[in-house]
Amino acid sequence: GRLAEARDWIRRLPPPALQSDVHLQLTVAWITALGEDAASVPLLIEKIRQHPQFDDGCGFLAALISAAVGAFCDQPGRIAEALEGWDHLPGWALPIHAAAWVNSQANLAYLTGDFERARQLLAHSLRSATREPGMRLALGYGDMIFGLTHLFEGNPAKAIAVLRPRLELAEREVGRRTAVPAMLAGVLAGALMLHGETDQVFEVLADRLDVIEKLAMPDSILLAYRVLAEVSLRRGEEARALEFLVALRELGLARNMPRMSLVSLGEQARIHAIHGRTQTASELVAQIEALAPIFESVSYRAMQHLYRRSLAHARAHACLAASDLD
């Protein structure tokens, strides 16, 4: 889980050593896929496929990496495409490969709203795997997705029960500002907010929002920003709340992650509607409506349920602000 150190070693690799070793190239691609530079990985994989040592085993690893790219680029369609044809693990697969394969399937199930299937996929993986340092990152992803399924079913207490002990353990093992604690912290903050433990939110997120942005999964980033905006709003700091939401949308635009824009616009519409700014709320609803073609595309179609719900909520808030009860 020490991704910063791994990336530092990548920069030190002599080009001839990297060019001659297909497995080293795959390792570099996988490390790069886990974070803000994931969008650059498909081009790397295309080049790796042309290597003379590339075989079926490399193909399976490339599929796992492509699924990770889909997760970190927030494109469920890419995850599904990567997993196509890999219904079973190869006999030679290591525990780390098995965990990554399960995580990808569970993440896809979660993103499509099938929370029970996501938990079923993860239950055996998380229970049977040895929690040794080499498995830390993969199991951290699994714990995060498991917590997310409880959170989005409206059960923050169960999410907290999963996430808090894992976060405390990860902080002891690798420090506060590293990948696993960062991804767990964003989701735990969302669970704490929903559970009414707002005083702990800033403590959980303190001094690592930048790390969450760089290394965490999109859901962790989304929840961190939503929570910070909501806490600010409850403290009467509306301008600060809107600043967080605008920053979330800018991040979504910069990384081509429309779900971030969708969530940001929906939350902004709600705030402006609550304060009676009907024109602004209506304009924000129109911006959400303009996103419809994106969520009809193959890459984002699995998020259609989220898009429709977000649009319905925004429209309802705008109607309430305009006293249009019908």
How would you describe this structure to a colleague?
With about 325 residues, the protein is mainly α. The protein has 19 helices and no strands. α7 packs parallel to α9, α8 runs antiparallel to α9 and α11 crosses α14 (about 220-235). It is globular, with a radius of gyration of 20 Å.
What are its keywords?
74% helix, 326 residues, mainly alpha
Q: Low-confidence parts lasting 5 or more residues at pLDDT below 50?
A: none
Instruction: Please provide the count of β strands.
Output: 0
Mean pLDDT: 94
Class inferred from helices and paired strands: mainly alpha
Quote the beta fraction.
Answer: under 5%
Number of helical segments with 4 or more residues: 19
Order of helices and strands: HHHHHHHHHHHHHHHHHHH
Write the layout of secondary structure elements.
Layout: H1 3-12, H2 15-20, H3 22-33, H4 41-48, H5 56-72, H6 76-83, H7 95-111, H8 115-128, H9 136-151, H10 156-174, H11 179-194, H12 201-205, H13 209-215, H14 218-234, H15 238-255, H16 258-274, H17 278-289, H18 292-296, H19 304-321
TL;DR of this structure?
By secondary structure, the protein is mainly α. It has helices spanning 3-12, 15-20, 22-33, 41-48, 56-72, 76-83, 95-111, 115-128, 136-151, 156-174, 179-194, 201-205, 209-215, 218-234, 238-255, 258-274, 278-289, 292-296, 304-321. The protein contains 19 helices and no strands.
